[in-house]
Amino acid sequence: MNRNTVAGLVALLLCCGAMLFSASCSSLRRDTGLAVRDRPDPVSIIPSSEPGVEELGRRPAALEPVREDGIPEDGRLIRGHNATQPMIPEDRVRLRASWSWPAKRSAGRLAILGSLPPGPEYKKEPWEQIGMDEDVWIIAKAEGPTERDPKRPTQGELRAKREDKEIPLPLKHTAVSARISAFIASVDVVQQYENPYETKIEAVYVFPLPASAAVTDFVMTIGERRIRGLVRERKEAEELYAEAKRQGYRAALLTQERPNVFTQKVANIEPGKRIDVQISYFCPLPYRDGEYEFVFPMVVGPRFNPPGSKDGVGAAPRGARGASGQSTEVEYLKPGERSGHDISLALEIYAGVELEKIYSRTHRVRIDRSDPSCVRVALDGMDRIPNRDFVLRYKVAGDRLKTAFLTNRSDKGNTFALVLQPPAKLSDTARMPREMVFVLDCSGSMRGAPIAMAKRAVKRCLRNLDADDTFQIIRFSQRASAWGARPVPATRENVAKALRYVDELRGSGGTMMIDGIKAALEFPHEQGRLRVVSFMTDGLIGNEAQILAAVEQRLGASRIFSFGIGNSVNRYLLEQMASFGKGAAAFVGLDESAAEKVDLFYDRLARPALTDIEIDWGGMKVSELYPRVIPDVFVGRPVLITGRFEGSGSTTVTVKGRAGGEPASYGLAVDLDEDQAEHAGITSLWARWKIKELSNAEIRTPDTELKDEILRTSIEYNLLCRYSAFLAVDSLERTQGDHGVSVNVPVPVPDGVRYDTTVGGEVGSRKSEVGSGK
Amino acid sequence: MRLLWLLVLAMLLAAGCVTPASGAGNGSGNAPAAGVLFLPVDLWLDSGAVPLAAYQVELTYDANSVKIVGLEGGTATAYSDAPYYDRAGFEGGRIIVAAFTTEEEGAPRGKVRVARLHLAVAGGVAPDLTAKLMSAARPGGTRIEVDVQLKPSGQGE
Description:
The structure holds two protein chains of two kinds.
Chain A: H1 3-32, E1 44-46, E2 55-57, E3 77-78, E4 93-97, E5 111-116, E6 159-161, E7 171-181, E8 184-194, E9 201-208, E10 214-222, E11 225-228, E12 230-233, H2 234-247, E13 249-258, E14 261-269, E15 274-284, E16 287-288, E17 291-296, E18 313-317, E19 328-332, E20 342-350, E21 355-359, E22 365-371, E23 374-379, E24 390-396, E25 405-410, E26 413-420, E27 434-441, H3 449-464, E28 470-476, E29 480-482, E30 488-489, H4 492-503, H5 513-521, E31 530-537, H6 544-554, E32 559-565, H7 571-580, E33 585-588, H8 594-606, E34 610-616, E35 621-626, E36 639-646, E37 650-659, E38 662-671, H9 680-700, H10 704-716, E39 724-734, E40 741-744, H11 762-770
Parallel strand pairs in A: 7-20, 9-40, 18-19, 27-28, 27-31, 31-32, 32-33
Antiparallel strand pairs in A: 1-6, 2-3, 4-5, 7-8, 8-15, 9-14, 10-11, 10-15, 12-39, 13-14, 13-39, 16-17, 17-24, 20-23, 21-24, 22-23, 25-26, 26-36, 28-29, 28-30, 34-37, 35-36, 37-38
Chain B: E1 2-4, H1 5-15, H2 27-30, E2 36-46, E3 54-61, E4 66-73, E5 84-87, E6 94-100, E7 111-122, E8 128-137, E9 147-152
Antiparallel strand pairs in B: 1-8, 2-7, 2-9, 3-6, 3-8, 4-7, 5-6
């Protein structure tokens, strides 16, 4: 299906949709018996230039009655975007749509089909991508040829209009290209800014990157001219940027608000003109349960900030700048609103060995294996809405990591990265009796599909507990509460009671995670059991440092295993909680099977880790190792260690520790003169890891010397950190006129997250009370 | 090669290279602050008849008054992309700018602009910027001698 097809059809949908809208609703009520509880806001579609529309399969049997309403046999179910309407109950699957077109320039119609009661065991297949709170667009079959309206825009994907007002935005497109070699990804992100207004603007965009990303390069492109930015102390960079902006020079500033949240500002974009910004970073790929995982986050979820907080990451409705009262603020599109911002992503994997398996559960991808040395992956043309993390997983042939040791020699010294794997025999070690503490995030951002998945996960765990385990359940939102006074044995009766309790949990209110942590960690630990505290959350809070400090202070003998649930979770927080909590993190998207993930995760954590690890580096003279304290290593969860080294030739690194109380050790042969000893990313990753360690130390004990050391490392290794910034100024010419106004780039709430319970609901309202912004 | 920036500044201002923006807008808000002046400066290399395949130039300056706020490529196709840099030390005041081309045919000869530096000069102080060749090479890697010059942008094109 080509772009003209889509453009032509959707233009006609726009014309026909409104007219047929109400008629369709009423007839559906009559013919299908499906309840249309409320009539949603009028939302129409404008043309798209996308080459195709994702087809999910034939319409579900449950919609068969709809056919009587004139929908043809050969209609196809087409994936659309989430446009949750707050007035419709969350336990209904709502369908909005029309039908597919067989030929270009065909007409169709727009209709609300109705809603389906999913029920507790609702099966999504064959339209498995559709969540309980998602809308589905079914595009109409042709009713006759027609001409496309030439006045309609043709670029972008399906975009919504409300009251005939488009949402012009300065960010048009994000192009991501990545190259993976061994376990290192080198990623370029190009953000294309274009001024759709009649006056000059400054574009401001808050966006995510992986928390482990070492941002090393920054280039501003104006026409054919490319200007490389330099990293410098943040305050100085901000002042220079402000001055350049004031004087009318084009400039771009990149700052880090959190390890995984960044702000891009581009000043003096003239009407109709375009400025591109390229951000480059290196990133290690986690190796989890036999698979490498490449993640590219696409949107910062709406975060909760506790009362009194000013330096959080706030959420505000589009156009309500300052409403959150936080130093960093993300504006969100309202339900049904869409921007023209889309994303493309291309990935090259040079694994050096055959890939047994490669897949994405979050996006449709095209995989090209025609080149034996490289597998190319690209985001499908119709899956380009940046509203959820892109996650690609792949498995190389064989069970073990193929590359576990990489080095880089440069004028800044020699650095290495080692992936430390547990010995295989760990997986045969007996399970220990556990004290399981399940901590459920029941806040507004979890409402709907996320809380449903979290509940399924907890129930799965409860059913799988051993008879000699004990358990406790804690829920938190605005406050925390426990199911029982203390952990109870996992008897059949207790589990049954707990299942009923979990069934009744609902998502609403704020995210006072600190209360959840206190409730989970501040009761006596029963000796002889491994206490496992499992947080099930999206992590959408803005006070990460406070949370991590609380974990550090209260951890005791507990281990924290965080389980991220959602399509755009705060991975930084969840991974750090696990790191501070001497545990591990796992993530499950809303399109994945929670059962599979949960079973694997809890099976892993049930077995003892390789603990008390010491490393004999053999012929390597190592220094500045990170992490400074080597964490316990769990089956299926290798740990990355990086450091400086001196030496040459081959040597054997010996890992010693204890497994199940018994001594354990194994050796790893390494070649310090390996052929490809120029993995430039290794030095950047080492420096990034150093900054992470210093930042963690700062969370534990704020110290100006730590800040200085972090900044020094950042400047010396040309690496972005919270105390530095990348700045690029074009001093060649000044733009005409005033510098104009600042325009924030609003983003959609993540797929699966409800606007009404976050930005526009309880959390948003409360945030407004806290903030003073305006 | 050192430029006496007091003269350069006077020259730039006189020549109108740093002209206040005209047209709409609030004039006062657009005037350069007394504190900071933004200036483009070009880096020229002259390798004579020998093709220039790589260069490395060290720039030294007073970090208190001069900030490099952007590095841009030059006119020669081989060096049109923004050069890479390595800040030699945390305190600033010294930076190494470098670029190379792997295409022998694309290596330029003679006098070429290889880079443009975007500067922010603070306090109305005459900046003192020095460029020194660290190394240059012809295709194949043989070191060559080249002449290094810094010029205000727009001059010497």
